[in-house]
Amino acid sequence: MESNLIFSESQKINESVRNGKVLIGSINEDNKPNFMTIGWGMIGNIWYMPVFITYIRPSRYTYKNIMNNPNFTVNVFLDDLHQNILDKCGSISFYKKNKIQEFDIEYEFNSNKIPYHPDSDIILDCRVVYKEDLNKYEINKEVKNKYYSNNDYHKAFYGKILEYRSKNG
């Protein structure tokens, strides 16, 4: 895989993350697909490998999935055509309903049997190489008060990018 190609797209990917236009794809213990919209994450380089770092709270269904199976997909949308899907996957938990089935959300499986959305502009297939709980004692008080008033701290998942696919080749 060509790391330079991934890094050349990192600005688009990070902008889509910031705008809530990215889905994380995972599977549960019954191999049922799940998507979750994320707003926190980034492309990076650690140990001389390209990684996507995503932050997921332990209360999220996707957290359990990735803890059980370290493979996940990053599904990047560069426009607003799929905002309805992003909204549903960002507000409805699989704990409450199977949103993929209920809303007929399209998906396909990659070679690791992890779901991806076929209309994504960019797809990253990732495998966790490192995970770390955010240290509540090291978080700035202002940030802690704004995002962690209920003590539901994120875990950072560093996913080595195994494959990169783009609609633009």
UniProtKB/TrEMBL annotation:
Domain Flavin reductase like residues, every copy: 19-164
Keyword Hydrolase carried by entry: no
Keywords tagged on the record: Membrane, Transmembrane, Transmembrane helix
GO molecular function, one term: FMN binding
Pfam families given in the database record: Flavin_Reduct
Transmembrane portions of the chain: 38-56
Family: Belongs to the flavoredoxin family.
Protein name listed in UniProt: Flavin reductase like domain-containing protein
The species this protein was found in: Candidatus Mcinerneyibacterium aminivorans
